[in-house]
């Protein structure tokens, strides 16, 4: 039977008591569990939505470390494709069958899942005992309706990633600061190295820097208004379209735009891409790239208003329908996985960005040049709208990116189509421009 529980309170002293607050005023208290880690026994299913080849092995190493302290907590690790996980979790939770106990959720999914009653409210739990150690922006993605439903696992944003050798060969001494600078740099790269300048992935998320660069956004949550087809956004998307049309950026293929981008960058056939820290490990291991020291990282170029990239990342959340006697083990597992030492381990292995302030004081993070380069990128990142519908914004944006960058469709016409989709299917209560 599915529990409608939404809250956990965890008190750690001589014992751990778990109080699960159900809908309404009823409360059910789980049996008290001893604090001795060896006495904690449970079997948990964890859905990991990271890349199974580049990132999955590092998470499995962490599970092995966790089990050194908690030998009787079995973690059933399941790698679930990121593109399928959101709907797969919702389907399983709604059917009360097959949902994992712990999920690595994209930041935009948390408000949606919380609004549906699928996540535990973690306020008062051990997981939030040191909440002030988490950076405020990644932590904000876990808040919904005044309550907290997850803890940040990793944060990220988009940066301009570039090939240092190609820049040197082209006589370029610093990363472009504006999109106009990108066009100039691309021309120099083509003339002096015969290689392409920039690749823009044909995905909506990757076009947000162009929107933010003109001061735009997708919606105005305070006014409950759809702004995705505003004049600022049209101007931003036109900048991206012009880069492709001019040849400064490669025209993306109709199939596997992202994979093509990474292949060309790893093979040193294109000098610049817009991407995030999750690809650092991939580049480090690419035999054709020239080593991680060949990777340059800078803030995304600015538009007429500013330089801005989206806040991304993932959070750990707990399924509200899990058996109550698993809750103590789930808390212990997430506490370990989100600790500063675990985040520092992942940062060192994968190049991912910790969400805890204290993690940046650990040597392996403090002395990592790539992480240091990404810190100002994240500091200037633009928070996305943390509303339940936020995870549904990107399907229409992906269509728009394909239409504009690949098919050559007019940005205003395509953005009007996105606005109509938002109005009819996503934020139906919002007004349209």
Question: What would you note in describing this structure?
Answer:
It is a single chain. The chain is built from 16 helices and 18 strands. Residues about 1-35 have low confidence and may be disordered. The N and C termini lie far apart (about 45 Å). The chain is of the alpha+beta class and about 425 residues long. The strands form five sheets. It has a five-stranded mixed beta sheet. A five-stranded mixed beta sheet has the order 15-12-16-11-17. The chain is about 40% helix and about 20% strand. It has two domains: about 5-150 and about 310-380, D-Maltodextrin-Binding Protein, domain 2 (3-Layer(aba) Sandwich); about 160-310 and about 385-425, D-Maltodextrin-Binding Protein, domain 2 (3-Layer(aba) Sandwich), CATH 3.40.190.10.
Largest sheet: 5 strands, mixed
Regarding CATH, which class of the largest domain? Alpha Beta
Strand content: 15-25%
- Average pLDDT confidence is 90
Name the poorly predicted regions: 1-34
**Count of individual domains:** 2
CATH superfamily of the largest domain: Periplasmic binding protein-like II
* Helicity, as a percent range: 25-40%
How many strands? 18
How would you write the strand order of the largest sheet? 6-5-7-18-10
Structural class: alpha+beta
List strands and helices in order, with pairings:
Blueprint: E1 7-12, E2 15-21, E3 27-29, E4 33-34, E5 42-48, H1 56-69, E6 73-79, H2 82-95, E7 102-106, H3 109-115, H4 136-140, E8 143-144, E9 147-148, E10 151-156, E11 159-163, H5 164-169, H6 179-193, E12 196-199, H7 208-213, E13 219-220, E14 225-226, H8 231-246, E15 249-250, H9 257-266, E16 270-275, H10 280-284, E17 295-299, E18 312-318, H11 327-337, H12 340-350, H13 363-366, H14 369-379, H15 394-406, H16 411-426
Parallel strand pairs: 5-6, 5-7, 12-15, 12-16
Antiparallel strand pairs: 1-2, 2-3, 2-4, 7-18, 8-9, 10-18, 11-16, 11-17, 13-14
